[in-house]
Design goal:
about 50% helix, about 425 residues, elongated, Serine Threonine Protein Phosphatase 5, Tetratricopeptide repeat, alpha+beta, 19 helices
Length: about 425
């Protein structure tokens, strides 16, 4: 099996906060990632801490899971693969739907596969096992306190056994009177071919979606085609307006690692001659891609050019300024991105001549955006602070200087373009 496989689950989103010694990495969607693995988010976060030699912090009330230091999402994603192989996958059938159980008396962690029935013990040499023994998976993390003497004893025993030292003086670390056969009886499962097939059929949807994903090995164009088919199927099934549709669409784009290009495909499938209505209707779908993502916004502008210049030139060319303003008003496109787009006429999506025509039609909006930006800059520069001796200490008046001719100028009525 390829050690660099990826799972169909949310990709890790990491945000670095603070500076200097106080710098830390917040794993924004740790709860979602851990849920896909059917493991507590504290386990995955603690695993990162063990691997990186960093302290971890949990704010369970606000779902904030923190690893001290600066770490990028790609690095954490690679480390997560190690966690999955050690603490999630069944060693017998590679299925991810497994359960962990802490055996306190033996100081061990048992893993049972719901699919094939395999039961075995987790390798206790990793530092995370000590934390799991102290904080069993069925224990509510929010109520976890100081480990009891029984738990501490079990943890010490687990550590010594992992190092080849048996605290009870026996050869294999089992308590006297215990035998492998008795242990098998306690954790045994029907392993007949019929029983295994039945359990495979009963796998939950969560496990099925966690199946090994080979799509990332495909070319980018093949992945774009997969995303196109995914959106098209949703559209044909009438599921684009479902409450969770925008989340599912984003998750699929992230799974295929084409988030930036997502808006280009969405524009092709979700827009037609009624684009001004559809922009509002599917606003949330586009926002999930374009928010604070200039690259995705530029791909959306590419889709906009294709739609206007190639697909519906007769009906949409005249509406170019209204379409751009709708994107801006609904926060789908940022002012800076639109202005930057206007600075260079490209023939990437349409011919040079058509691109020039689109830019010419867009001029009213570009002028309006630039003037608004200049006025904003002037207002910031023309603020005079006047301190008053008659006001209470610490308070002051702010007087804005205005150009005498400012009120006399005729502003462009952008809504009437």
């Amino acid at each position: 099996m390829d050690q660099f496989y990826r799972y169909k689950m949310p990709r890790i989103i990491a945000k670095v906060e603070g500076k200097g010694n106080g710098i830390k990495t917040v794993i924004v969607n740790m709860a979602e990632v851990a849920k896909a693995l059917s493991r507590p988010p504290t386990y995955t976060t603690k695993y990162f801490g063990c691997e990186l030699g960093a302290q971890t912090q949990f704010d369970l009330k606000n779902d904030r899971f923190i690893v001290n230091g600066s770490h990028d999402a790609a690095k954490l994603q690679d480390l997560l693969d190690g966690f999955i192989k050690r603490f999630v996958l069944c060693p017998a059938c590679d299925n991810p739907e497994t359960n962990l159980n802490v055996l306190l008396k033996k100081g061990m962690i048992s893993q049972r596969c719901i699919a094939c029935g395999h039961t075995g013990n987790i390798d206790m040499r990793h530092k995370l096992t000590t934390y799991i023994v102290k904080n069993p998976p069925d224990q509510d993390p929010a109520t976890a306190g100081t480990p009891s003497k029984k738990v501490k004893k079990a943890a010490r025993k687990a550590k010594s056994e992992a190092n080849g030292e048996n605290g009870d003086g026996t050869e294999n670390g089992h308590d006297e009177g215990d035998s492998p056969q008795e242990e098998d009886e306690e954790w045994g499962e029907d392993t007949s071919e019929e029983a295994i097939q039945k359990r495979m059929e009963d796998l939950t949807d969560a496990a099925k979606t966690l199946a090994l994903d080979k799509d990332l090995e495909k070319t980018q164009q093949e992945r774009v085609d997969l995303f196109y088919s995914f959106i098209k199927e949703k559209k044909e099934a009438g599921k684009l307006e479902d409450p969770d549709a925008s989340k599912e669409i984003l998750a699929e784009a992230e799974r295929l690692d084409i988030k930036d290009k997502g808006p280009l495909i969405l524009a092709e499938l979700l827009f037609d001659e009624n684009i001004l209505v559809q922009i509002k209707k599917f606003r949330k779908h586009f926002l999930r891609f374009t928010h604070e993502n200039p690259k995705a916004q530029k791909y959306l502008l590419g889709g906009f050019e294709l739609l206007v210049g190639k697909v519906y030139p007769d009906t949409l060319m005249a509406k170019v300024p209204k379409i751009l303003k709708a994107f801006y008003d609904l926060d789908i496109l940022d002012e800076e991105v639109i202005i930057d787009w206007d600075d260079k006429v490209s023939k990437k999506y349409v011919s040079k001549e058509v691109a020039k025509e689109i830019h010419e039609k867009a001029k009213p909006v570009i002028v309006w955006l630039k003037e608004a930006e200049e006025e904003s800059s002037e207002e910031e520069e023309e603020v005079e602070v006047v301190y008053s001796h008659t006001e209470r200490a610490g308070l002051h008046k702010v007087v804005e200087k205005k150009n005498k001719d400012e009120d006399e100028e005729d502003d462009l009525d952008i809504d009437n373009i």
